[in-house]
């Protein structure tokens, strides 16, 4: 064998060795990636499959009357869920007033600071009437303090708070997560008894920011249009019950045996017209309210009267909206706020927000600004990507 042939073979061997090493590296990387996927897949699998099943099933069924039929009980049986005594009440809150919006904030007894932040920002009734020229009534829905050692002290503080602000509605059920549906029944029952003439009803969490000027202008348009059976928020369609026992949203098959919930809006914030509030209240009088996911129970009540929610892209659902002036122009709600109510209220209601970004150039600028804020993979809990183009 000549020297040239030996050199050629050695080069071929080196190239083959390099190629083999590269293939081994690629194989190792592929195996590593697959192992990572498999680690996470086990936890994602059942949840993902249940979502696919329920969403597909939702589009196959024209109605969910079988759910209503199976949850219907007598009025006497249903009364045990709503037959609670008022500890604090505001019977004259809506008296002799043309109320555009009754806004119920679900709060916990100990959340005094959050109630204060709401009273001094978006829930300031006097400010709303003075600047927007409409009457909005804001009240806080509460249960009884669940902590035995703090109960007397907290209840005494609640009485003092109410003497000053006159905006607490409290009944004697324990204020816990598993009694949220009872708290919804409080809201529906109180509205029926003391404020049935309010043209719109809103239920919201106490860590939500509501852009009242935007919401009021929107509801005035809806009111002028004479829309009936109005229910708006972020819509969850074809959602399955959570079967993971470690989740606080866990619902057993015994409690709810079906694969999916009726369409509903998250309890963080949604709005109903007064005609629908009345219908939902009547439906709640003959439905089993043992399901403690309150927004789902609201969906069950609405399903019983044949009404579906309407999606509004600027209701944030469970998510917090991005901080940007172009977002504030159209914001309805943003969820998950605790410490920033005052600063967000100041920025979101600045008159310059509406002035600077008006006109064709302003709309184009805001579209370009919102695209990177909203059009992100897996960014589903706040405004959707399509909101960037509105």
Explain what the structure shows.
The protein is of the alpha/beta class. It folds into two domains: 66-311, Spore Coat Polysaccharide Biosynthesis Protein SpsA, Chain A (Alpha-Beta Complex), CATH 3.90.550; 325-389, no CATH class. Helix content is 48%, strand content 13%. The protein has 14 helices and ten strands. The protein has an eight-stranded mixed sheet with strand order 1-4-3-2-5-8-7-9, sandwiched between helices. Strands 6-10 form a two-stranded antiparallel sheet. Helix 7 (180-194) crosses helix 9 and helix 7 packs across helix 10. The termini are far apart. 36% of the residues are buried.
Q: Unreliable segments (pLDDT under 50, ≥5 consecutive)? A: 31-57
- Beta content comes to 5-15%
Mean pLDDT equals: 86
Global geometry: globular
CATH topology of the largest domain: Spore Coat Polysaccharide Biosynthesis Protein SpsA, Chain A
Distance separating the two termini: 77 Å
Strands, total number? 10
- What's the tally of helices? 14
CATH architecture of the largest domain: Alpha-Beta Complex
Order of helices and strands: HHHEEHHEHEHEEHEEHHEHEHHH
Structural class: alpha/beta
- Calculate Rg over CA atoms: 27 Å
Number of domain modules:
2
Write down the CATH class of the largest domain. Alpha Beta
Q: What is the helical fraction, as a range of percent?
A: 40-55%
The main sheet orders its strands as: 1-4-3-2-5-8-7-9
The biggest beta sheet, please? 8 strands, mixed
